[in-house]
Every structure is written in structure tokens, then in C-alpha cells.
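Progress narrative, Year 2. Work on Aspartokinase from Rhodovulum visakhapatnamense advanced from sequence curation to structure prediction during this period.
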Amino acid sequence: MPVLVMKFGGTSVADLARIRNAAEKVKREVERGYDVIVVVSAMSGKTNELVGWVEQTSPLFDAREYDAVVSSGENVTAGLMALTLQEMDVPARSWQGWQVPLKTSSAHSAARIEAIPRANIDQKFAEGMKVAVVAGFQGISSEGRITTLGRGGSDTTAVAFAAAFDAVRCDIYTDVDGVYTTDPRIEDKARKLDRIAFEEMLELASLGAKVLQTRSVELAMRYKVKLRVLSSFEDTDENSGTLVCDEEDIVEQNVVSGVAYSRDEAKMTLISVADRPGIAAAIFGPLAKAGVNVDMIVQNISEEGRTDMTFSCPVNQVARAREAMNKTKDAGEVNFRELVADTDVAKVSVVGIGMRSHAGVASTMFDALAAEGINIRVITTSEIKISVLIDRKYMELAVQALHDAFGLENAA
Ligand code: ADP
Ligand code: ASP
Ligand code: MG
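Result:
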């Protein structure tokens, strides 16, 4: 039988009625002749609640215990989904990550999938089971401990299963009916895209568009998984939603395809560090070791052998970054006067493959922000994106201004 993977996110399994609604969609696919692997998230809000409990208990928590706690939300929905399907006379069974076993690295809270042996699930399909319900977001390390794949990781579980089982498609059911030119929650003129190229989706995801986890897009690209995003609240068919596909499969290419934002950024500046060879390594090595995800980096002009080094990181990693830097200072490895943290910034980015061949995107972007009186703190660019760090209070305004400036309300 051909295998189809269907993933339901938190809002799609938020209560028993929604689980039933999702189960009906699954049943329809079983009736079309598929063996279905369903990947579920925790009920919406659940993972945040669990993370909150961990942080309240232990601010600089042991990541192994964080994973033990935060993975539990998916166990509940997997079992409930299997039960709901059974009540509908669909033969179904649930699997937690360790039961598959979905093997991962030991990088707790950000583990990478290493292998998904098929034997257990294949055997059940051979015995007549029609639906394997898999708890998303979680796996098991070679030390035998539960791991999680990073926030939004159920998307990655789904794509990894689609690759491992040669699925005909991986359908990501969520609370929007596809991938939009920007988050439809903050720009009502946002347009749904019928298709988006893997590379653009990869950038949008990594720059904050949480509709797909970045790693899921990477995996889909690498293993040629047919990946689709669609609504769990509407009637859908083979043409619904947004298909994430190769660049060559898109006829009309926009210069800019989308605007992404990331709200929870912090800008950190090390004031007056020695400007000498090895200083960047001495700063960013310990930060990486402490698990700080450094994003943008700017080294300011040097004066009398000293300089300021600015970097950005997620706002919830400021304490970790500070601790790591104070340790290197105490150890005499990096000498700085002060570490200043600005925790009220956001990152806004424009993304588009067309940027490779069109000049002028940066100036359009900076003009649009200037016209709104928005000050740019840091800029970074790559071949197909431009990102700026700005005051968080202007984030929505910036997204809307850029959406307008690039004419995205007419995108298709
Ligand atoms: P799920 O719980 O189903 O995984 P998420 O909340 O993780 O859903 O992702 C869906 C959300 O992503 C949407 O509700 C929307 O607010 C947000 N989003 C951000 N950027 C985009 C975009 N470009 N297109 C569609 N949705 C987006
Ligand atoms: N429940 C996890 C989270 O909220 C994983 C997911 O939903 O994809 O991040
Ligand atoms: Mg998600």
C-alpha cells in the first residue's frame, strides 16, 4: 500500500472535538487506499506550559530533564488520536518516539534525527493496521534518554517519517490554509502562495516563519519529500494548500516572495574588548559551548586597539550568554568592560530567490523602513535574504511596510 504522512499541529488537536475532526481526515485517506502515518503535536499551549514549569523549577535547567518533561504533551495526543480512530473502526496504534525507535543525537532540546527503523511499523501495517500514530517532536538518544527536536519539531518528525517510508506525500495540517507572503496574523493583505521553493521556505522558516520548522524543510529538500501545508479546519483535496517544491517547478518567480519576523531577539554588546587575532573565537567559542544560538555579528570600528562586539541571540538565552561571558572574563580569556543587553529588539527579513538576479532590493527595503521612521540597528544579508534588527515596538509596522513596498498583496 502507498504510505501517506499526515501531521497535525497543536491547534489541530487542541481538544477532543478537534482530534475527532483530524481523525475524520485520516479516515478519508485510509478509505482512498493509503496506509497512513499520523504525526501529532501536543495540544496547543501544552508545550509552553511544560516549558514554563521547567523554567520555574530550574532556570538553568538540565536539558535531559527538560526533554523528559516537554516531550510528554505529544504522548497524550498520540494515544487519544489512536483511540479516536479505533472508535471510528479504523485499525490504529500509537507509538512514542522511543518505541519506534526514532533514534537521535544526544543534543537535548535540539536533537537531530539519525535513524527511523521501519520494522515495527511495517510489521503492523502487514498485519492489517491502517494508521500508525506517532508522537511528534521526540526521540531517543544512544544513551537511552528521551530527546526533543526543538520547538516546532513535529514537522521534522513528519518529514523524516515520509522519507523513511517513501511516502507519496507529507501533508502538514495546521491553522492556516498554506504558506503566505507573510504571517497572515499580522498582515491581513498577506497572500497565500500556491507554491514556494524549498530554498525560500528554508530561509523564511529559519528567519522566524514558524509555519514549518527549518529542519523539516531541509530534510524534505534533501530526501525529495513532496511537502504540503494545508488547513485542518477546511475541506481539502489534492490541490489544496501550498506545495513546497523545487525552484524549477515555479513558473512565476517573484523577486521577493515573503517577509519573515522573529520577535524574541536580543542584541548584546561587549564593550571595549581587545581587537586582536583570535578574539572572535575566544568570544563565540564559549557562547556556542553554552548553547547560545548566535545569529548576527557586528564588530565595530576599532580605536586604540579596542573595539565593541555586537551579536544577537534569542532573548531567552541572554542569561546563558551573560554567564558564559562572565566566566571567560574571570578566566582571563576575554577582557571587556561591560556586556550590555538590549532585550527589546526584533528581526525582520525579506526573502526571495529573485534577489540573485535583481539589484535594488536592499534600497527598497531601507527606503520603506526609513519612510516609517524605523531605525535599523544591525543588517545582515545573504544571496536570497536581507535581515534587519529593529526596535520590537516597530516590528508589525515594519512587516506591513515591507509587504507593501514589495507589492506582495499581488503575489501568487
Ligand atoms: P502548528 O501548531 O500547526 O504547528 P504553528 O503555530 O507552528 O502551527 O504554525 C502556524 C502558524 O505560523 C500560523 O498560525 C501563522 O500565524 C504562522 N506563520 C508565520 N509566518 C507564516 C507564513 N508566512 N505563512 C503562513 N503562516 C505563517
Ligand atoms: N509541541 C512542540 C512545540 O510546541 C512540537 C510541535 O508542536 O511541533 O514546539
Ligand atoms: Mg508548528
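The longest helix spans residues 16-31. Residues 287 and 324 are 6 Å apart (CA to CA).
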